Amino acid sequence: MSTTALDDRRILAIVTNYGVEQDELVVPVKHLSGHGAQVSVAALSTDDIRTLVGDRDPGETVRPDLTLDDVDPAAYDLLLVPGGTLNADSLRLEEATTRIVSSFTASGRPVAAICHGPWALVEGGYVRGKTLTSYASLRTDITNAGGTWVDKPVVRDDAEGWSLITSRNPGDLDDFLGEIDAVLAETGAVP
């Protein structure tokens, strides 16, 4: 059996069951799985996840592996928070989301959020002191929450004892995934 750079890495993607931007979930899951990582997708329920393309057109259906309430965040090396306006707006209101994000940030494990995904970090107060990017409409929310917003394809900020990787939209996925690969190469796997 051959080994790849991400063997033994466990990734958790958190979403709602409707409205996640298709490519912001499907492309990272395929990329990370294809490089040897074990990727779990957690949603509000075990019902199928209905993705959208451009926040409006039906996309692929994805089957979640577990629910947000059933997640043991300590079992994962990196948290992935995809966007999609409807998904991110609902996800940030879930207590389980705050519990999961808090576990990652408190333990110094990396979080990667794209497009509207950083709303989950804004809601819990985790962007204070961080520089990040997102879909442009989150700029004021990020600034008001104590973060510094910049308009770049990908931003990695290692301040506050944990790595935050952010990107603006599906057009930035290559840069986003490259930075996720880099941070996973630098950090150790969860024992």
Outline the structure in words:
The chain has 191 residues and is α/β, with parallel strands linked by helices. It is built from six helices and twelve strands. It has a seven-stranded mixed β-sheet, with helices on both faces. Strands 2-4-5 form a three-stranded mixed β-sheet.
Layout: helices, strands, pairs:
Blueprint: E1 10-14, E2 18-21, H1 22-34, E3 38-43, E4 49-53, E5 57-62, E6 66-67, E7 78-81, H2 85-91, H3 95-107, E8 111-114, H4 119-123, E9 131-132, H5 139-144, E10 148-149, E11 154-157, E12 164-167, H6 173-186
Strand content: 25-35%
From N to C, what is the helix and strand string? EEHEEEEEHHEHEHEEEH
Query: Sheet with the most strands?
Result: 7 strands, mixed
Strand order of the largest sheet: 6-3-1-7-8-12-11
Shape estimate = globular
Class by SSE composition: alpha/beta
pLDDT under 50 segments (min length 5)?
none
Overall radius of gyration: 15 Å
Query: What is the tally of beta strands?
Result: 12
N-to-C CA distance: 21 Å
**Number of DSSP helical runs:** 6
Keywords:
alpha/beta; single chain; 30% helix; 7-stranded mixed β-sheet; 191 residues; 6 helices; 3-stranded mixed β-sheet; 12 strands; globular
Give a quick precis of the structure.
The protein is of the alpha/beta class.
